[in-house]
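Sanity check

After download, print the first record. It should look like this:
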Amino acid sequence: MPNESQRMEKIVSLCKRRGFIFQAGEIYGGLNGVWDYGPLGVELKRNLKDYWWRVMVRERDDVVGLDGAILTHRAALKASGHEDTFSDPMVDCRTCKARLRADQLPDKNGVQQCPNCGGKDLTEARSFNLMLRTHLGASEDESSLAYLRPETAQSIFQQFKNVLDTSRKKLPFGIAQIGKAFRNEINPRNYIFRSREFEQMELEYFCRPEQGAELLEYWKEERLKFYQNIGLPNEKLHVLSVPEADRAFYSKGTYDIEFDFPFGRQELEGVAYRTDYDLAQHQNASGKPLDYFDEETKQRFIPHVIEPSAGVDRTVLALICEAYDEETITDEKGKSETRIVMRFHPRIAPIKVGVFPLLKNNEQLVAKAREVQALLRPHMNVFYDESGAIGRRYRRQDEAGTPFGVTIDFESLGERDDSLLDTVTLRHRDSMQQERVAIRELLARLQHELA
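Expected structure tokens:
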């Protein structure tokens, strides 16, 4: 296997070659910190989000969903503190003119230096607000100022009362959202890990104050199970208990769930106990009640909230990094070659099954293969491929991370053995083992494997 730096380079190369991820605006020189997802990438991303929604919303009685607007009222971000404090410290390198985050500069002999040129002639650090501004309407002045949301959470807090009234939930309950957020990062880096346009999967779980500490622990464990269930191994997942000095002032506890990327251990998700800060801020700023009335105790109070907040793009990158594998295989003639395979968990894999007629110029094989494709397609993402040698087709799907391949051969037509009529060869990606499966049993077998 390559070293970690080479491994990351190979992963980035494969992502472009196979259609996972492209640089946004590439034909114009690229847009720094912005990425487009290709045919395989968008399927991988969709599968991740769908599984998160299934686990966090549809399989629970205590969570409902929201799809809030990206354009955000300036007053809301003023109340939340984003307009005044959502910033990073920035310095300029006077030697190479690079703009850098002051808190991420390498230190040599006690002196900070530019990571690009090694220069030590740096400006004083100054605050740089990360929010992207826009103007609504025909005029461009302070009255028309709005922001592209820097996080999805604030729309949940603003709509808390509406959701509470319409869903008729009782504490504890949660509001979940998946959506785009925008941050004008000083220095986007590590591929799609830190970018300027990204997607979040967030839950705001509202509770009584006395339930907060226990629910923080509960959600930490739930989120760890989620990552294990999508194929991230436990030994590469780590929980950092954020020290009080590094937490937001209103937080009573925060865990960072971290993953071992090729470029180092980095945060996948934060699970934070935000107390009643957000709802209290919006209630005070808007003058509208955002409290909760407990019918049993006859008490009125502002709920506390636990926030598991995950990055879609970071999790996609973790899945890709973990899936990438190279192995040397030797054929029956003694010839060796390197097989590149993406070992995605079947429930996350972009394509679930490839369907291959052994020969594209045999009408019976092609017709039977099309029947199998039609059988499976309503239930899963199927890729049909009839071009090239069958071994080459297998390799293409290995690189795409497709867990199963179905080959329709002459045995499927019953030409050599009547008992094999209407059976197919089912190939397993990871082991490359093959078995005969009856077409009538194929759908149920694959659904079981993909569950």
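If your output differs, re-run the checksum step. Summary of this record's structure: The chain has two domains: 4-72+150-320, 351-450.
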